[in-house]
Structure formats: C-alpha cells, structure tokens
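Let's sit down with a protein and look at its sequence and fold side by side. Once you have written the record down, we can walk along the chain together.
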Amino acid sequence: MSATLEVEAAPAVRKGGKTEIRRAFSSRVASFAIILLTILWTVPTFGLLVTSVRPGADVSKSGWWTIFEHPHFTWDNYHQVLFVGGFGVTGGIIPYLVNSLAITIPATLFSLVFASMAAYCLAWVKFKGSDVVFFTIFALQVIPLQLSLVPLLRLFNDGAHIGSVPIFPDLNLGGTLYQVWIPHTMFAMPLAIFLLHNFIAQLPRDLMEAARVDGANHFRIFRTIVLPLITPALASFAIFEFLWVWNDLLVALTFGGGSPKALPITGRLAQLVGQYGSRWQLLTAGAFVAMIIPLIVFFALQRYFVRGLLAGSVKG
C-alpha cells in the first residue's frame, strides 16, 4: 500500500518541482537579470556599430561613447570597404563574401550528409565493434585541430609513401576551394556524428521495425523516415557549422595558401585594419557587413535551434 502511494505521489512531486522552477525563472528578479545581461552583452556590439559610422579622425582621437556629446557620422567607411579597399589593398570585399559562401555552404552540406549517414549506421545498423567506432569518433573531439593542420596539409600536397610505394596520392589542390572544403568537413565529423547519433538513437524502435517488415531497406528508412524526423537536429548543427566555417581564418589560410580565389572574408578583414592597426573604422564596417549573412541563416533556422540542441541530450 505504501509503495503504491509513493508511486502515485512521484508524478505530483515532479510536477510540483517543475512548477517551482518555472516560477523561479518567471519572477521579476529573473526577468531583470536577463534584461541586464542582454544590455551588457549588446553594449560592445553597439560600440562596434558606432565606430563603423564614425570618421577615421574621430576614431583615433576619442572613444565611441563621445558620440552622445559630439555626434558625427559618415557612410564613407562602408563605401570604402565594399568598393574601394583599405590600407595597401585595392578592391572591395564583395568577391570575398562570395568566396566565404563558396567555402561555407559546401562544407556545411558535406558535413550534414556524411555525419547523418554515419550516425544512422552507428545507431541502427549494429555490427561488431560499432560501439568502439562510435566512442573513438567521439574521443576525436578532444584533439585540437591545430595539431593536424600541418600533417594534413603535407598529406594533401605530397601524399603518403612507405619507401617508394605510394599509399595516398598527391591531390595537388593547393590554392583551391576543394582543399578548404575537405578539412572543414573532416573537423566537423566528430561533433556532428555525436549529436546526430544521440538524436537518431532515440527514434521509436517500433517505427523502424515496422518499416523493415514492410520491406524497406536501410537507405529507404534513412531517406523517408529518419531524415524528416531529425530535421531539428540537422538545422541546429547547420547553424553551428555555418557560423564556425564562416568565422574561420586559420583553416582557410593554411589550406587555401593565401590565394585570392580561396581567401574568405575574414582574411580580407585582417588586411583592412592596416599594418599598424590604425584603421579600426574600416575593420568595424567590414565586420558588420560580414555579420549580415550569418544573421540571416540564424534567424531562418532559429525555430529548430533549441529543439534540436536539446533533443539528443537526455533520454525519456
């Protein structure tokens, strides 16, 4: 009898706990704290925006907060960044925006395609050693990518040999977008497979078994059942990967070889500031131009973001 009462009381306790937590985070103190943190987080961005529309002479003499006393704005910084160039650099940043899109979109799509297929196989196509493979891939997240840049670059450019026997051919992709796509896709695999595996593994087993009874093979199950159900997880990781690749400079410079054909917008922004870092007004204007596309991607996929981020984190 007592055990029955405890079992019946457990849902009520959990429900009450959720209610108390909801009340705690819905209080005026919590709302005030969130508003305060939001304002503090926004202040540097506002300062960046103000600096981007101030003349260079004003930027070098005073801080951005002085605009409240002596407001003086100009759009010349954006015109110079978009169409003219900066310190010793001719041409605007629009071609480099196109380069960043040409790098980021394929790298993100390749990561999603390969990681989703690998995650499905590791979750539902059990084979000997599948758990070892999954945990090995997960463990690769702790390896800093900086350690693999030079060995991977030498592998791409020189291949791999044991004595005179070639093991991996020379790809000869230096200075091209292909050589930037491949490492971005490789570096994204461990985290992508881990997140998508946890999501796919929680799909109902009855649904999978019913599809197999109807004669569906693994490819059809993956295409018609799994992909529609994991759309929130795919969108969540797409945001992460898009932002990471878009803001990357190290991988693009290492594997792109500094070629203008493979130089992203981050590389161009580093050139705009000048040799002695004296042209902050151009750097801030270029930074705001570079923020436009990631913001569009984020707001387009934001409804999936929290749902997909949390879906694979807990069970039950």
The chain has two domains: 2-76, 94-311. The beta strands are 85-86, 89-90, 160-162, 165-168. Residues 1-16, 312-316 have pLDDT under 50 and may be disordered. The domain at 94-311 is CATH 1.10.3720.10 (MetI-like fold).
